Amino acid sequence: MKTPPELLRISGSEDHDWKLRVIPNAFPAVQPPSQTWKDLWEANPTSHRFNSAINQERDAIGFHEVVVETPIHNLVLATQPKSYVKRILHAWRERGRKLCESEPSLESILYFKNNGSVAGASLVHPHSQIVGLPLVGRDATIRRDQNLSYYETHGRSVWDVAIEEELKMRDENPLHHRIVDENQLFISFVPFAAISPFHVYIASKFDGAHFEEASDAHIDQLAEILSLALKRQHVVLGEPDYNLILRTSPLRGRSTQSAYDADRFTRWHLVLTPRLGAGAMAGFELGSGMFSNSNQPEQDAHDLRTANIEDLE
């Protein structure tokens, strides 16, 4: 089957004429807006929200793209060099910027990678996905509201406080803490309330709510620390299936705005979740809304931090 027209290409070398390509998803969850839909949206942005007494319905409008990460069919991301990871992050940022510029109805953009069948991947070939939506999802709205509430109550970003606590814990007890890696701009750690074993957050140490505004320096150092996180999980867990999600704020100047700039109270970040049996959604999780994780985050962080990844570098 022929692939759809390219949206972005990173040129290759003598062996392959491309290193990475972005194309429309052949089986999209949403469809690009028609001109009629755009005209109606411009006249009334709320015209496509259909409400009943208890339910809300929206047109399945948006952009669903696939990042084909390599022409080689069976590469494992965790075993590749930093430059390989950097290309993916660069493609995410560039396509995010392009979607934001080209379609004013979009309110949020999702960036994610499902690796392995347990994580929801339907293709073996290395790929990730980008979805632009004319709405903000429920979970993203809840996270934004919680971050804003903390800021209004305490006058500080919850991310500043969380990172300070992780660094303080490491300083006080260098052998028993939750930090995995750190560089000039980013920190990776197993969160205090990890939803599953070896669950890892990668967060910027500086303000910034919108991934699309990330600098080249951010992309470079993010690739470095993400590459390490993937390698550590690969060694400790034996090439696990996982979900990699980049959480970023609704696009600047769109969606529901607050009195505060989002940069003040929230921060874009990566979440790396290995899909292990202990982290699966089952009756307890579905019934209570809570996650059951018997692992200690400090021990998980220690195991990742001390993993021998020399053979993968």
Tell me briefly what this model is.
The protein is built from 8 helices and 12 strands. The protein is α+β, with helices and mostly antiparallel strands.
Any overview of this molecule?
The chain has 313 residues and is an alpha+beta fold. Helix 2 packs across helix 5. Helices cover 33% and strands 20% of the residues. The mean pLDDT is 90. 34% of the residues are buried. It has one domain: HIT family, subunit A, CATH 3.30.428.10. It has a 10-stranded antiparallel sheet, sandwiched between helices. It has a two-stranded antiparallel sheet with strand order 3-4.
Keywords:
alpha+beta, ten-stranded antiparallel beta sheet, 313 residues, 8 helices
Order of helices and strands: EEHEEEHEEHHEEEHEHEHH
Any idea what the shape is?
Answer: globular
Largest sheet: 10 strands, antiparallel
Strand order of the largest sheet: 1-2-5-7-6-11-12-10-9-8
How confident overall, as mean pLDDT?
Answer: 90
What is the number of E strands? 12
What is the CATH level 1 assignment?
Answer: Alpha Beta
Question: Given the helix and strand composition, which structural class is it?
Answer: alpha+beta
Low-confidence stretches: none
Rg for CA atoms? 20 Å
Count of helix runs = 8
Which fold name corresponds to the CATH topology? HIT family, subunit A
Q: CATH homologous superfamily, by name?
A: HIT-like
- Total of domains: 1
Strand content: 15-25%
Helicity level, as a percent range? 25-40%
CATH architecture field:
2-Layer Sandwich
